[in-house]
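Re: weekly structure request thread

Next one in the queue (418 aa):
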Amino acid sequence: MIGLFAATEAGRRDLVELGPFLGPDTVVPDGPVRPALHRLWPSLTSAVLFLGAPSAVRLIAPLLRDKRSDPGVVCVDGAFVVSLGADELAERIADVLGRTAVLGTPGEDGPLDELVELLDATVDGDLAGCSAALAAGEHVLLVNPLGFPLPALPDTVLSHGEADWKVVVDDRLPPATRADHEVRLVPRTLVVGVGSGSGVSTSAVAAALAELEAAGLDLRAVRAFATADRKAGERGILEAVEDWGFWHGDTSAPLLTFSAEVLAGVAVPNPSPSVGAAVGTASVAEAAALCGAAGFAAGGPVELAVEKVKGDNVTVAAARVLPRGRLALVGIGPGGADQRTPQADAELRRAAFVVGSAESVDRVRHLLRPGTGIHPHGAVELAASGLAVAWVAVGVGPDAPGAGARVETVRVPGVAAV
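Done, posted below.
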């Protein structure tokens, strides 16, 4: 919901002109600005204040809690439209009113920052510099070899060709040294399985993990470690996992454990009969890695990224949670912003494509990122091709048929239409 607030006659005239262009979720409360803003603040996605920026900052300061939940604010101040965390809305208002948009700091909470948060990725390289270049209209090449479903991005983000900046989304190490204008986003997609004999040393486990790097994996992508439950207290494994966290920015990753019976039921490429005779399962490292990855995948596909590597009294392997298309079934209620959940708004922002009737799409169009594709049908097919899709409908939302294991389906129901 977008709230419009004006305290002066001139502001109210601008408000009347602007309102019809911002969609049906726009509200214009009666009465003084301060109590109306305080009352509506928790339910707003954006607030437009026909005030000078200093006055607006003083007005909203007591209401601010968290940048992820606070609404974006736009100040309409004379000839300028000033963005306080709502650049796209400020540009739209400036266009309608014929004013000059003053946008936020380039690189702060821009598309790349949001992409890092969405992927839960570690950043390697000058993200701020790349974001500033993108904000300045420069082309950025985005390389996504594993096929993560990404939201709509500015049209200056290219999927092929030449550009001054390059962003790579991958859990593997680059084949050569990273260039100055290359940024790597490393999502946490890997589960490392560890098997060992009794009394294995910390250094032996660490050396085996280093072999995974030699095989091309970026260990910053590790989401969890896994082993047999009988190894849950093995000191060398526990200390090596702790050391991994220290050397990777105090990152924490759980050590998952599985029974021999569970591990024995996992098909692996390198079973060991001698291990099977000793511990009741022919594989620990590979089977534990695959079991751990399957838990995170929640029915989606996984693969062995690196097969079993043998070390000194230890074996390790790595499994990958494979990206898959995302289908959000979004109900927008009868149409009002108060009948649409914050999660619905988030899924609409996350989508590269929105599918639905013209009526449904028109009610949420103002929430979409620039460049979001709009289709009347074909949501399941688009998601199955690996894309992030939001399928919107009035009321509780669409009821989609099964999309298969390669599609993550999320239901975001709205209020039932009366």
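The chain is about 30% helix and 25% strand. The CA atoms of residues 332 and 340 lie 5 Å apart.
Next request, please.
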